[in-house]
Structure formats: structure tokens, C-alpha cells
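Task card 7
Instruction: Convert sequence to C-alpha cells.
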Amino acid sequence: MSMKKYSEKAPDQGRKKLPSVNRGASVLERDDFDAGPTNLDCIEPGLWLGNLTAATDVETLSRLHINHILTVDSCPLPRKITMLPGVKTKFIQVTDTPREDLLSHFAEALDFIKAGQETSVVLVHCYFGVSRSATIVIAYIMKKHNLSYEEAFQRVKERRRFVGPNPGFQSQLRLFELMGFQIDKHNVQFRMFRLQIAADQVKKVKILPQSCVDVMKSDPNLITVRPEPLVYRCRKCRRILASASNLLPHVKKEKPSWVDDKWTKEDHSTLALCSETYFVEPIVWMTCVTNNLQGKLHCPKCNSKLGSFSWIMGCQCPCGSKISPAFYLVPSKVEWSNMVQNVQVTL
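Output:
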């Protein structure tokens, strides 16, 4: 396949965008088709990376036999493209901001590219073809060829010289590498990442949106076949409140961050972990956290005060570490136990 570049002109990222418009109850359309001339580059046989103009250039799509188009943008493609016979499209709605969650879309995006590349030709695009779509293509190259982020980035950049994922997307690609090119929901960094994304959303809409309900963990008090051996219970009524896996570690006097890969180490014995306050993930018995920005946490059985939570202000631990968002249990109000009680006996 020809490696011809249809435009060597770099996208004008300083170009003023016109606002997108909403012409329906839930259908977004855009007015800002001003991403410059048709611009796309062949990353490898069957995979192209380009801008919005390329994705709407019917002649170019036909000439290159592109019949799979992945849009990673704030608005979908116009119907004149999505309704083209023989063309399969997929739309992932994200903005080009460092705190946007693109990582959670990797699996569906990479599956779409793989299926398309195996049978035809795929174009991945965003507005300029620089950040969002480049992030997806880099992730695909990482997984397909078992490459590190840096190696995959260089490979893509050799084909399209002005690719540049924003800093947040770069960190998400590095986390993708650390998780072995898949989403590991048990990974501490990923859990911290999703919690930060949820906090950003709660600050905007004042409630926990449906897209972030995965941060609410199941109630460890429920009967289960394989309960965790170490749990934290209400000191007054002994109701199980959290499992050891629900705890979010932090180092004394340090603000924890999901971009810090120290949490990927299996052995945390070398870290000065703090236990002065038990910071945990939000758990479903904390019903008040889904529709309040901050408040108190009470035992769901005896109503004893256990701690507090805050999506917006966070909490200052006595050790000096600032945690945000924060869901914490006061150690004097709870006790830990390794007595398994919530086990389901099966015959």
C-alpha cells in the first residue's frame, strides 16, 4: 500500500473553532468543519490516522478503500458519511483535555480497529489527528506489537510527524502499558484514576453520573462464596464495612496520584504507608455519596458516625497527606477482623 501523505501541512491548532450545535434531543452536529485540508498518513498497511476533513472526504475514502472509520471527537460524523454504503463507523465521544478518560474506551476502540484491519482499511481520526486519535492508534500499536509507550509513540510519529497526545493521555498510555495492554480493574492506579474521573464529573453535575457508577464497590457485608479474610467492621455493632482491597494506600506527607507507578509494586513494605486514617473507595452502603458533594458517613446498621467524605475538598490526613476525593473511616470507630463470617456454604 502506498505510504503517500496526502498533506504535509501540519494542523493549525491555533485555528478558532466554531461551536458545535445540538439540532435534536440527543443528536450532536457540528458547524466547525475547518480542520484544514485533507490530511492523513498510513501508519501501517490497513491503518490510517488523520483529521476530520479526511474522514469527510468521500473521494479520498474511496481512493484508499477505507470502509472502517473510528471517530474520536466531541461530535459524530455527518450522515453523508455514516450512511455511505459499505462503510462501518464508530463514534467515541471525548474532548481533548488532560483529565478526559480515554483509557476506558481503549478496549472497544482497539477491537474495532483490529476487526477492520483484518478485513479492510481503517481510518482513525479526531479533529486535527494529533491527540485523541493518535492516542488510540498508539495504544493499538502497543498492544498489537507488544511495544512500550515510547516505542509505539516513535513508530507512529515516524509516519505522522505531528502526533502529540496531551499529557493526560500520555499518562493513560503509560498506565495501559503497566496493566499489560488491558484494563485491570484491580490495579490500584486504575482505581485511583477512575475515582478522579468520577470526582471531576460529580463537581460538574453535582451527582454521580451513570458512566461512573463502577467506582462504587460492592458491599463486603453481603454473603459471598469467597469473602476476603481481612475486613473492617463497625466497632459498635460489628457490621462489616470494608474489605482490605477497598483501602486506598497513601504515603505519609505525600498526595497520592494515579500517575505514580510506585503503586504497581507488589511489595509496599519499602513505602512509608500511613494508617492514621482509613481511606477507602466508595462502597454501595454509602448511599449519600451518590447525590451529595460531601457529608458524614454513618453505619448502615446502627447509624454510628464512622467518618466523612468529600468529592470536592478532599481531606487532610493527620500525617500531612492531602487526599482528594476522600472517603474515610476513623480508626477509633472501626476494628479490623480476619474472622470470616459472610461466607456462603455450598454443597
